[in-house]
Every structure is written in C-alpha cells, then in structure tokens.
Amino acid sequence: MKKEITNEENDLIEAIRNYKRAYPNGQKKLLQYAVMLFEEMIYG
Q: Do 29 and 15 meet the contact criterion of CB atoms below 8 Å apart?
C-alpha cells in the first residue's frame, strides 16, 4: 500500500530528518522551522 503525501508533509518530514545533521550550526533554526510547519498543518 502506497500513500501520497502533500508538499507540506514532505517539507516537515525533511526538516525532521535534517534536524540532527544540522548540529551545531542551524539546529535551533531548523527546529523552529519544523515546529512552524507542524503548527501550520494543525491550525491552518
């Protein structure tokens, strides 16, 4: 079974995957970006 995801979902997944790779430069900004994407998806 294959599921399709939206561009927003893909962006969130990529941000989460890259979070650990961003340490120490950019890790904080990437976390803020991932949280922002998540909140936009939840609250519209």
A: no
